[in-house]
Amino acid sequence: MRLWVLAAIAMVCGAGTAAVFRRLANRRAAASAGKRMVAHLQEIRLYADEPALIVRAQLAAMRESLRLFEALMKPTLLMALPMAWLLVQLDAGIGHAPLHLNEAGIVTVHLTRELNAADARASLTAPPEIAVETPPVRSFAEREISWRVRARGAVESDLTVQLPEGRFTKSIAAGAEWRWVSPCEFRRVSGLLLHPWDGRLAAGNVKWIAIDYPEVSWLGWFLAFSTVGAALGLLRR
What is the pTM of this model? Predict the structure, then answer.
């Protein structure tokens, strides 16, 4: 299921990117600059014993690379931010798997204030399928409180963190079935833009709450599927 979702997103992304570049890029200038750059690079091989000619060919190749960038600048700048946002979402949702059954994970709360003695009474409440195995472990230097948890059964529910200043919740998922997970939940609006799936933390001294979900390799598949989508998009011109 995860691979099919990734394939669909990547191919649509590749086809859309190809359409933007086909419409906005100066393709004639790009092709011309690319050919001249290759010619200058070949000069470096031909004149390997002529340092002056090599330097001149290198400078010429650099100039052509700048012309190539100029020809592709409009679509590149237009797609940069949407693509960066999409990759962040894919890394969170597809690049991480739910907690594996009978394997441990770490839940970490990062505070904006200094830790104090009252934080020793911090607690983490989890659904029955999630066992909280340790008391709160405090890192005064990092302003963090952590717990080790272990998945005993498949679940998609919420954790509750009780601190002196209030109660905060964070979603958690465990089991073999693929789910779109959110490794980190933030208080600031900027964090919400990058990780919108959990919503925003309640106001307070908690900056973020994170779960170290198992990582999944996905970028290579995304590049492969997006390349196929881009090729199909170009064929339909």
Answer: 0.73
